[in-house]
Amino acid sequence: TLLSEAGIQNKGTIALPWCADGILGIELAFWLSGKSPHWAVKKEFLVEEKLLTALDSKSVEVKAKIVLLDAEFRFVSGSRKNSILAGVVKQVDFSRTPVEDLDLKFQDETVDTILCIPPQPSERHDPLPQWNAFFRRGKQVMKKGGTLGVLMMRGAEAFSTLALKNDFKKVKEFTVQQGGERVVGMVFVKE
Q1: Which residues pair with 27 in a beta bridge?
Q2: Which of 187, 140, 147 has the alpha carbon at shortest distance from 166?
Q3: Residue-by-residue pLDDT tens, the chain, 191 positions
Q4: Full-prediction pTM beyond 0.85?
Q5: Beta bridge partners of 177
Q6: Taking the C-alpha atoms of 166, 169, 172 and 176 in order, what is their torsion angle to the nearest 10 degrees?
């Protein structure tokens, strides 16, 4: 849903900070290629196998540069492993880069899109310092008119307020259910 709501295109540079397990980047690679996420297990979908095979035969090359980033090696390593299992490792780059160092990974105004699931606030964790670092560097590396797509379970209003203070205008907000949890999706454009 985030990918369709954000209007992601198969071109330019797409950064995914706080990549965690890499699932958002893997979904993005499938989305851009037009390949079914079930391509490797089509036989388990006996009724839909012909449909999935037909869709996969129309897949296209991923032209966008997809970069998954995280400060922690374990998340970068896990993302790489999951990308190998999903068969998209050749379409994705990986970097052990914290959000406060996005400017060391990318030159100014070169990133077209940023997609992320930022750290969520809790009783024990205040993500505000990380969010501030993200907006400081994200604003620097993102092109004017670039898209920021975010998924949040908690703290969406505070994140949205901070985005506005950093010249990101909210253009869409939507909610989805993930199990019993309500997830808020937001799309911003850098002004």
Answers
A1: none
A2: 140
A3: 799 999 999 999 999 999 999 999 999 999 999 876 655 555 555 556 666 666 666 678 899 999 999 999 999 999 999 999 998 999 999 999 999 999 999 999 999 999 999 999 999 999 999 999 999 999 999 999 999 999 999 999 999 999 999 999 999 999 999 888 999 999 999 99
A4: yes
A5: 182
A6: 10
**Measured distance CA(126)–CA(120) in Å, rounded:** 8
Structure tokens given for 162: 């901070």
Rounded to 5 degrees, what are φ and ψ at 120? -100, 145
SS3 55: helix
| Other beta carbons within 10 Å of 6 | 23
For residue 44, the one-letter residue type is E
DSSP annotation of 1 reads -
DSSP 122-179: -SS---HHHHHHHHHHHHHHEEEEEEEEEEESS-HHHHHHHHHHTTEEEEEEEEEEET
Q: Which backbone phi and psi does 12 adopt, to 5 degrees?
A: 75, -165
139 contacts: CB under 8 Å, gap ≥ 6: 166, 167, 168, 190
Please, which residues have CB within 8 angstroms of residue 174's CB and are 6 or more apart in sequence?
Answer: 1, 5, 184, 185
**CA–CA dist 108, 125 (Å, integer):** 30
**At 171, is the secondary structure helix, strand, or coil?**
strand
